[in-house]
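Why this split exists: single-chain examples teach little about how molecules sit against one another. For that reason, every record in the complexes split bundles all components of an assembly together and asks for one structure covering all of them. Below is a record exactly as it appears in the raw files.
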Amino acid sequence: MRWSKAHLFTLKDAPNDAEIPSHKLMARAGMIKKVAPGIYTYGNLALRAIRKFEKIIREELDSRGAQEVLMPMVQPAELWQETNRWKEMGDGLLKFKNRNGHDFCLGATHEEVITDYIRHDIKSYRDLPANLYQIQTKYRDEIRPRFGLMRGREFIMKDAYSFDADEAGALKNYDLMYSAYKAIFDRLGLNYRIVEADAGSIGGSKTNEFQVLADAGEDHLMVCDTCDFAANVEVAPALGQNANEKVKSQKPALLAMEAFATPGLKSIGTLAKSLGVPEQTLVKTMFFSLNMGTDASDVSVKPIAVCLAGDDEVNPIKLKNVLGLSNPPRLLTDQEVKQATGAWPGSCGPVGLSFPVYFDGAIQDFTNFVVGANRDAEHLKNVNIDRDFKVAKFADLRMAKPGHACPKCAKENREGHYQSFRGIEVGHVFYLGTKYSKSMGATYLTADGTPTPIEMGCYGIGVSRTIQAAIEQSHDKDGVVWPHGIAPFDVHIAVLDPDQEEVRQSAEILYRDLQAHGLDVLLDDRDERAGVKFKDADLLGMPLRVNIGARGLKDGIVEVLVRKTRALEKVKAEEATEKIAALLKGIRLGGKA
Amino acid sequence: MRWSKAHLFTLKDAPNDAEIPSHKLMARAGMIKKVAPGIYTYGNLALRAIRKFEKIIREELDSRGAQEVLMPMVQPAELWQETNRWKEMGDGLLKFKNRNGHDFCLGATHEEVITDYIRHDIKSYRDLPANLYQIQTKYRDEIRPRFGLMRGREFIMKDAYSFDADEAGALKNYDLMYSAYKAIFDRLGLNYRIVEADAGSIGGSKTNEFQVLADAGEDHLMVCDTCDFAANVEVAPALGQNANEKVKSQKPALLAMEAFATPGLKSIGTLAKSLGVPEQTLVKTMFFSLNMGTDASDVSVKPIAVCLAGDDEVNPIKLKNVLGLSNPPRLLTDQEVKQATGAWPGSCGPVGLSFPVYFDGAIQDFTNFVVGANRDAEHLKNVNIDRDFKVAKFADLRMAKPGHACPKCAKENREGHYQSFRGIEVGHVFYLGTKYSKSMGATYLTADGTPTPIEMGCYGIGVSRTIQAAIEQSHDKDGVVWPHGIAPFDVHIAVLDPDQEEVRQSAEILYRDLQAHGLDVLLDDRDERAGVKFKDADLLGMPLRVNIGARGLKDGIVEVLVRKTRALEKVKAEEATEKIAALLKGIRLGGKA
């Protein structure tokens, strides 16, 4: 592409709403332009990266027998009502009526549509397995879109769906997609982790997320420093610092419970200080409602209490899963806590409550501990489980922390501890089971003629998000450093003296020669100063840059610069193509992190 | 693709709502499946055809310097309000509120978004020209979607937009896109015409439609039997049977106008019969309202009358253009005619009306003619223009007919007459001028620093519609006959005795060999009878079919069948690939209609 003929404009400053480096860089490089919050036009450079990524995805999926289809973005309510997700998906699903007054939504995901698609075709076990995918534009009405393509409303996604006769087959397809995703993200050259995760509202019992490591990531990951275990903090087991430590078998004698005044001591911190004990020896109590308050016809509070060590935090996803809910329960307001317990937050505890108390496993052996008295400015000491209050369930309800033992290492008798990372979720694989096939009547006949629900899996890659995640992970102060697999162009030629015929000609020859070798080349033939061109080349971040100017050409020389390492080499003009091909090969091979 | 592993199901019967052959065939071949009226999932075969078509489009546009971008489907109301199309587009534009209560629509076209996109970038004449395009999913809330992809609600479109400093530049870009479209549709091997057309609500003054000829087409075309002139009947000039015939200079003497009773004679037909004259010598009068009745605050009727020969029909598009409206005027109801004229339809005419009368050019020289008297069951004879009523304007207001003289031939003193065809509009090119740039403030600075509105053009290709149009034009009683340029597969191998190891092996070798030659191959390796496979192969319609079975292989022979001509050739198995490559080359060359 010749820059002088292209619609390609760089900006000195990023828009005000760009908070993270990748968003700023994409906007400055003209790769995305905001049309509305969370909605962007992709410029040519971004689209080239997207197309390259799509090609990689297609190659890896097609070679594994998946088959591409294309489903619509506008979807009828009837299909979503069959699975009850018309209600369950909440406001993230954008709903509207068409001109005839019929209810539709914009596809945020396609489980319903694909299940409808296959249920008419698949009749017998002979029609299974199947694996269908699409690369398509989706819309989720995010409350607070931000970070550019990272949490946009309209986005490009690859979603695949597998159909099998039984769980064994479904898990085989799961593994196949897992391997495809590994191959895809390896080819991109990204530093990523495959993590344990929560299945969320999509349903399903087995799931992994593919997370690109980057400081601006919205996900918090626990990654083992010894083995390959990694988990989203949402589900990371919290084993404490030493999982293999034996629990003391000798319990101290239970003392008599007594109240004591704690005026002004409303936080665990101040209470610990006043008592002269560490926070982790105190028990704090949090209150949630099982009633989500989303159904206007039932606004009553259905409280539960959750007790955990003073320095731990409740993990809402773990709590949701323990309670068997589809969404995390709602934290009570201060006013609701007062109503439920008789005291304002800070003086509440598990004793004397009329509703269930859930207890974090880390403190299940605590004895003679301190809790709020459910009377303002008063606490209880020497409190004990069973004697003073009943526990509905002990479970791992807390957030894991860096330094906690890795569960895989613990199981295999190794020393291994969590490290904390931020991640950008770019892919996920789900084993769905029969959630959708059962509710939508997608069955097949077994060999003996029994109608049986089809086993399903679903597999997503955030195509547009991955492009930005790659930039978030791979950039420097000057601009983007494209991973080679998705760089919009392989080579960026900076024509330094475009007013000189000889330079223009040499650049043109190199431009054509590189293209003839199958490379994608951006020729900066604009009438601009060298400094401007260098700045723009750094900003756009193609893997290799060629500087071609009058001074070098006098000696038959051009400069080849590796964007990532800034290694600069002077090369004979006639050997430039060969040199560039060799360098790109090296970059490609080095790309596999 | 191996059929045994693919999700590919053919149907014996088409769905009930499929009215035309292409819709039936696409549904039966599993290429499309309805999700909601006008909304389809594309199966793998259709998607392959679409991708091949998109590749052709990209090659032809990129080689002409157009640059691909991707705009969003969800668009904010604000942009559409700037051009007033938020109102003007009516109910075809699907509007909704997002979760924050902001107004959005689904993109039915992208003039507003692209103009917004470039107005921030283009500052000076040096930034022009530009030509940007996208291939994207659009949504139009059609009142009555039908004919499958032909008039769907959700569809795939290629839309391009050009930006120039002046009209000369814009027309150059127009010609460039015109040539690109010719190249694109030539490569598809379609029988199509480039026709004069109405610009419709998009604005603009120069436009051509690319129409694929097919009986099921929704557009009515007038195509010259002598030269290359063709026009949508909406705008086809109506010159009569002999355009070069001299108008009689001698006018007969004007007779005295008189009324006569015509009880029961309410149509031109019965009146002509009663008077014993041909219908074309009578003048009929039609009534329309300039007030469209779309604005609820003003429901008054603003009538006009249109007079034309008894056997002609009013052309609403011509009338719209003569009146300078953006939509055709509304025909009055019988009740409204009665109110406006004093008589029920059948006895109305131009004499004594209090509102404007428009007169078709074909009858401007009529004298002493018969019209309705504006009194029920009464007509007037010996009526004359000017003496008995005033004409607001003479103009070509009627529908052209087959046999009418071709205007281009008439101008160049040739004999040439219209033939009537049906067409499917698959592409259009528009010169827009400054309609959008002016209303949206998209200006550039000229060399002397004057802010000037950018000259625009827009260019569309209905990608999904074209695929079906190709099938509508190219099929037979057994199924699809794919034009080679967009055939999902080049070759269809029917394995006739899949239970025999030798046949399976030979088929496999051929399958791999053809793929190694860069061909797309569908291998029908299902455990089905030969008859089923032949029927399905005919239905799916790939250009070439190879029959490979035990009987032929005994003699080292396979059969190669050309789908279009049904020419069947016995070929040595080891020479099959070479033969197939040669045949495909012939088909490709023959494809340019």
